[in-house]
Amino acid sequence: MFPLKSILRCPGSIYIQTLRCISVSPPKSRLRNESVSVNIFDRNTKTLQRQRAAIADDVNLYDYLKDEIGFRLADRVFDIKRKFKLAADIGCNRGYVSKHISPESVEELIICDVSQKNLDMVPVMEGIKVRKQILDEEYIEFKSNSLDLVISCLSLHWVNDLPNAFHKILDSLKEDGVFLASLFGGDTLYELRSSLQLAELERKGGLSPRISPFTEVRDIGSLLTNAGFTMLTIDTDEIVVNYPSVFELMWDLKGMAESNAALNRSIHLPRDIQFSAGAIYQQLYGKTDPETGKTSIPATFQVINMLGWKPHPKQPKPLQRGSGEVSLKDLNKLDEIVREVRTIKDDKS
Predict the structure, then answer these.
(1) In this structure, are strands 287-288 and 106-113 parallel, antiparallel, or unpaired?
(2) Quick one: 179 exposed, middle or buried, by C-beta within 10 A (0-12, 13-18, 19+)?
(3) Best CA proximity match to 70, nearest among 107, 116, 18, 124
(4) How many CB atoms lie within 10 A of CB 103?
(5) What are the boundaries of the signal sequence (predicted)?
(6) Closest by alpha carbon to 273, among 201, 326, 339, 224?
(7) Can you tell me the distance from the alpha carbon of 181 to that of 73, in angstroms, rounded to the nearest whole number?
(8) Distance, CA of 281 to CA of 275 (rounded, Å)
(9) From 6, 84, 113, 206, which residue has the greatest number of CB atoms within 10 Å?
């Protein structure tokens, strides 16, 4: 591995590539065998990995990505014009969301993580009551109908039984309670995945999964709907981070506790495949700064943002099918239709 100090930390090295709305209504399709849990991740290994990262002397160097995503998630909490009496941050890590939560939005906050070291380092704004709880996201346990808000930032993509986790979260929420979360999606690190696959094909003549599997955007809506959430909103951010080479990228993933060490399989990556993947990565995706002549590689992180509500009788209900008064084919005439409606109303008045 190359020295960490050589990693670029200049402003602008992290930027938003695209933001697109994926879904604002629950899909009707159901996932097959969604009740079957497959243990892809070793939770004990993941716990040790996160605890080791928490006690590292240079842990602050790796917070740049999760800090950005946590800030955006906290901003979504602030957008909900309501003061939540009791909220829980599941998998809070080093407080990437909690430190941005305003006392105007939350009265009391339960911060939960598998590492006591992380819990001890979480900063929270003055005016918010804080409770600390050791909790594994694989085994979410709260009293039924006890929480007004549940948030989670970049921890649920390591859960083996995501449908069960969503069911547990729904059960813990009060009626009309809110669930807000962000997790890495299927397009995350697609450059690294393809480079490793090509390198392994070249050297070994076969493929091994080297990148942890991520949940696809199309599946999140079905999982939330089947769990019982309503009024869903799902969208994605794509954040691109530039690194000098593939080695700095993999080093940072380890420092973030996001490496694939928790996978239930052999993850040994031979040195020749590492160097081959680095060369392929540079050839396919590398960029050169025309002013300085320095080269870098982009790494894409797809972040799936989700919002769901626990059902309540007073929540808005969709209109019955066929009750619309304007055809979609007439959308190009929307201004004329609005003027006609206003004219009719003025005549009646």
Answers:
(1) unpaired
(2) buried
(3) 124
(4) 14
(5) none
(6) 201
(7) 7
(8) 10
(9) 113
229 vs 222: CA distance, rounded Å: 10
Altogether, the residues listed in the chain come to a count of 349
Could you give the CA distance from residue 140 to residue 91 in angstroms, rounded to a whole number?
10
> What is the CATH topology of the domain spanning 4-312?
Rossmann fold (3.40.50)
For the chain, the structural domain boundaries read: 4-312
One-letter amino acid for residue 315 of the chain: Q
